[in-house]
UniProtKB/TrEMBL annotation:
Xref: InterPro entries: F420H2_bilvrd_red/Heme_oxyg (IPR052019), Pyridox_Oxase_N (IPR011576), Split_barrel_FMN-bd (IPR012349)
Organism of provenance: Streptomyces mimosae
Stored SUPFAM superfamilies: FMN-binding split barrel
UniProt-recorded name of the protein: Pyridoxamine 5'-phosphate oxidase family protein
A GO MF term: coenzyme F420 binding
């Protein structure tokens, strides 16, 4: 499960000589504090779809919202495979993370409440959700579906002293 310490591997082919693997704790810090993520899904015809969004990392999983008719929701109905990325838009410093997994819809009222509280705490009052019938609701945007990403693998791309780290989370 993703809350355990993952198996960590440094890929020497894509790392600088003498590079060390990035600790999972550094990846967690970035995942917990990042404000913007990029979600990659697969369209029913096989073409990729990428979009920026807000996400919460909590207890070893990622959570994001979308409208029921948005492209990402329609893609996930056909194929739950996703990659969620975040990091720094700089070449020589920082850390980029790509998390691979499967997204599943969350409808449990207790989980919806916890995540509604997490969104408001992290992103402020503009992202204050209420819990509806299996959805989150918002005065400005109607209903939002909540998805949970269970990660199976993540990659870290440390910059400066380049290091490509792989974390196997299953």
């Amino acid at each position: 499960m993703a809350t355990n310490e993952p198996t960590t591997t440094l890929d020497p082919e894509f790392s600088a000589p003498g590079a060390e693997p990035t600790p999972w704790s550094a990846a967690l810090e970035l995942l917990e504090n990042a404000e913007v993520f990029w979600l990659s899904t697969v369209r029913p015809d096989g073409r990729p779809h990428v979009t920026p969004l807000l996400a919460i990392w909590r207890e070893g999983r990622a959570y994001f919202t979308t409208g029921a008719t948005e492209r990402k929701a329609r893609n996930l109905a056909a194929n739950p495979a996703v990659v969620l990325t975040t990091g720094r838009n700089a070449l020589a410093e920082g850390l980029d993370i790509a998390v691979e997994g499967a997204a599943a819809r969350v409808t449990d009222p207790a989980v919806l409440r916890r995540l509604a509280d997490s969104y408001a705490a992290k992103y402020g009052p503009d992202w204050a959700f209420r819990v509806g019938d299996g959805v989150l609701t918002h005065d400005e945007g109607g209903e939002a579906l909540l998805f949970e990403v269970t990660p199976v693998r993540a990659f870290g791309f440390a910059k400066g002293a380049y290091a490509q780290t792989r974390w196997d989370l299953d």
